[in-house]
C-alpha cells in the first residue's frame, strides 16, 4: 500500500475526523472508503449512460459512423 499526502481545509478535516470516529474507523480508512464508493458509483453511472446511448438508435458497431460525435453530443455536464 502506498501512502499519499493530501491537503484539506481545516473544517473538512474536522468533519472527516468526526465521521471516522462515528464509524469506528481511522481517517485513512474513511477516506479510502469514500474514494472507493465514489469511483464505484461513477463507473456504474458511466456503464448505464453507455447503455442508454447504445439503445438510442440500436447498437453502434465499430468506431466509424459518427460515434464520437454522438457521445460528445449526448454527454451530460462534461
Overview of this protein structure:
The chain is an all-alpha fold and 78 residues long. It has one domain (10-74). 67% of the residues lie in helices and 0% in strands. α1 (10-23) packs across α2 (27-56). The chain is elongated, with a radius of gyration of 19 Å.
Protein topology:
Blueprint: H1 10-23, H2 27-56, H3 67-74
Short description:
With 78 residues, this protein is an all-alpha fold.
What labels would you give this structure?
78 residues; 67% helix; mainly alpha; 0% strand; single chain
Whole-number count of domains = 1
Radius of gyration over C-alpha positions, nearest whole angstrom: 19 Å
Low-confidence stretches: none
Helix share bin: 55-70%
| Main sheet record | none
Number of strands: 0
Shape descriptor reads: elongated
Computed structural class: mainly alpha
Report the mean per-residue pLDDT as an integer: 88
CA-CA gap between termini: 32 Å
Q: How many alpha or pi helices?
A: 3
Helix and strand element order: HHH
Q: Approximately what portion of the residues adopt beta-strand conformation? A: under 5%
